[in-house]
Amino acid sequence: MPPVSPELISSRSGRVAAARRLGKRNFRGKDRLFLAEGPQAVREAAGHRGDGTPTLVELFATVEAAERYADIVGAAHEAGARVHLASEDVIADISTTVTPQGLVGVCRFLDTPFEDVLAARPRLVAVLAHVRDPGNAGTVLRCADAAGAEAVVLTDASVDLYNPKAVRASVGSLFHLPVAVGVPVERAVEGLRAAGVRVLAADGAGDRDLDEELDKGTMGGPTAWVFGNEAWGLPEETRALADAVVRVPIHGKAESLNLATAAAVCLYASARAQRASGGCRSVTQS
Prior knowledge:
By secondary structure, the protein is α/β, with parallel strands linked by helices. The chain is built from 13 helices and 13 strands.
């Protein structure tokens, strides 16, 4: 295992206090730092570079975790992060989870300017409009990553991307694809459409059926899906911005699908259509 601080860091250390306060949104915004907890998130953070700058700046690890995840500690050192050995009590003090896994990283913000998302000419984008639950936001981000989306956009009415629950729910996907935050929904839709992306609003009351759209072959081009609030969906003014409002068909007796499940269905439908024969691989292809 690479060398780490020879002594356990004290719970009274200023470094511990600085990390602990990142559990609150106002301090995250002020410091432009957030917490990544657990081996998967810390591993991804250690390997991530934002504009050439290492994302992971500090790592707190119990002695047991440092030995068990020696490869992650080594990656943190290689990334230039400060590594501190810490007692389980210190980790519990910093962590926002009920059962900490012994590793807590302090990371730089890594959101991407919306203009950069558009400049990359994305083929598949998830837009979270008015999504307030951090667990749902993180899970949709994970679904978008798994489906091969090139970006996720969180509107200005949505939850904080760096909420610890959102970071955990993304299971490392936060570090895999560009995420733009604080974008007004009107600007998101207009910008994506101007970039050649078809904008679809996902809504249970949509006048178009996802299965029918797939059968008609309309899903193969660059697409952005707009997903709404967990409780009330998308407001009428947001639905009106989209090129079409599409519902996921319910073939059984379920009343509806939750946000993350519906997002997974929609994103994978687009991903499959885009990869099928004749599907668009980029906005410059037909």
